[in-house]
Specification:
202 residues; alpha/beta; Rossmann fold; 36% helix; binds 5-O-phosphono-beta-D-ribofuranosylamine
Length: 202
């Protein structure tokens, strides 16, 4: 069977993109990272893709009349490359129905909190400031609504009394970098099934 072809959408540092690339190199992904999609040409993730020899679709949203306009171009590229799974890993743009409808059930997102707690941005700091004792990482299917969609995997991270945003972020990212490749592998192996909001992983 042909390997699952994956496109990673990212806007920033790209440490999760890197974790996926490393997992593929080490034979732990069961899928091929075929494309990076990035809306910020100056983002470090673009350099990471270059170094890994992975093609990138890099664009500036302001060069397009609408979100739909750039998504149509991205969709053409996804189709051309036979992409079967989109991984949102720190992609700071909301997707429209152009991509969401074409890839329904085939888009996942990683979020640095235990959803439905702390959706949105800057959530590592928010969890710390709120005073929760446990936060974590969520990987879920994305459906066009912000940080919604059926949850595939979650892992808790304890908050220590002496944590700062930096120390907590470091532990959360460590979990992300392990959990995301694991989920991609399970999807690639056909072990993930969705029924309503519930996701069953064999
Ligand atoms: C991660 O914390 C991810 O959960 C969130 O954005 C961050 C991206 O980090 N959606 P990086 O660019 O992968 O380093």
């Amino acid at each position: 069977m042909a390997k699952l072809q994956v496109a990673v959408f990212a806007s920033g540092n790209g440490s999760n993109f890197q974790a996926l690339v490393d997992a593929e190199r080490e034979g732990r992904l069961g899928a091929e990272i075929r494309l990076l999609v990035c809306n910020r040409p100056e983002a470090p993730v673009v350099k990471r893709a270059e170094a890994a020899g992975i093609p990138a679709f890099v664009f500036r949203p302001k060069d397009y009349p609408s979100r739909e306009a750039y998504e149509k171009e991205i969709l053409a590229e996804l189709t051309r490359l036979d992409i079967g799974l989109i991984v949102l890993a720190g992609f700071m743009r909301i997707l429209t129905s152009v991509i969401v409808d074409a890839y329904a059930g085939r888009i996942i997102n990683i979020h640095p909190a235990l959803l439905p707690a702390f959706p949105g941005l800057n959530v590592i700091r928010e969890a710390l400031e709120y005073g929760v004792k446990v936060t974590g990482v969520t990987v879920h299917f994305a459906d066009g609504n912000l940080d919604a969609g059926p949850i595939i995997a979650q892992e808790a991270v304890k908050i220590e009394e002496d944590d700062t945003e930096e120390t907590l972020a470091e532990r959360i990212h460590k979990v992300e970098h392990r959990l995301l490749p694991e989920v991609v592998r399970k999807i690639a192996e056909g072990r993930v099934r969705v029924e309503g909001r519930r996701v069953y992983v064999r």
